[in-house]
Amino acid sequence: MSGAVEIVDYQPAWGVDFTELGSALRIALGDAAQRIDHIGSTAVPGLAAKPVIDIQISVLTLEPVDGFRLPLERLGYVYRADNPERTKRYFREPPGRRRTHVHVRQLGSFSQQLPLLFRDYLRAHPAAAAEYATVKRRYAQQFRHDRQAYVQAKDPFVWQIVRRADGWAQRIGWTPGPSDA
């Protein structure tokens, strides 16, 4: 990703943006998508974030990709086959549209469950979300022009939140709620 790391105050429009995007994705993907969820910081009310809508599409299997790749490409999304993360398939927004990251992951996998747990924990724990916002703002200022350094700097805090979220999940018997779209 290019450009400066920018963290902005929460925008209620992010939820509206996801609803519009999610509806179009649901129509295009039909049964190929078991779930379509708003993930990432823009999915947590009140949380400062990079103004990027992250969407997770959960599918039964990542291969073959055509069952979800072709409908996404028809909507204009750009498949990033060179994505190094082998537990997901990654798409970017149609050219000229608002920044959107689409993460396609296998339903029930650790990589699919983790962003949902992280999101749900932060939604249920506003103090933790506020801590996270502080960390993100600090590192965005420190590493404004080095996105990789920004991500690496905040990773230890993210994993600290994941450990808290795991304990919370065990105490309450957390499971993902219904799909967002």
TrEMBL record:
<dbReference type="Pfam" id="PF04229">
    <property type="entry name" value="GrpB"/>
</dbReference>
<protein>
    <recommendedName>
        <fullName>GrpB family protein</fullName>
    </recommendedName>
</protein>
<dbReference type="InterPro" id="IPR007344">
    <property type="entry name" value="GrpB/CoaE"/>
</dbReference>
<dbReference type="InterPro" id="IPR043519">
    <property type="entry name" value="NT_sf"/>
</dbReference>
